[in-house]
Amino acid sequence: MTATTRSIEIAQIAARAADAKQAENLVALDVSGPLPLADIFLIASGRNERNVIAIAEEIIDVLHEQGVRILRREGLQEGRWALLDFGDLVVHVFHEEDRMYYSLERLWKDCPVVELNIPTPTEANA
User: What would be the CATH architecture of the domain defined by 5-120?
Assistant: First the structure.
């Protein structure tokens, strides 16, 4: 099984929102095969607690504007690991130290990577 077109579209929107708040190391994994509850994990890093919170809040706001409802959020106030559950998309925004510790990419290494089409600064200004 593979992620739906809609899940990929929502992940792209969330990735662009995260990028707008200077998220680092954005990775999307198609977890639809081993995990029947979600299609895609979007993983991003923030440099510090405030950055993690800003990234997570931007994703929530932008997806809300697109009519995507958040089902659950965890860890937002601490700013170390924010988990945002949008159903088919689950977003993990980590403080960079916690991301290295938990290493979700290693845990889900057998899952295909979903390409994220985030414009580079020169493409965005063109």
Answer: 2-Layer Sandwich (3.30)
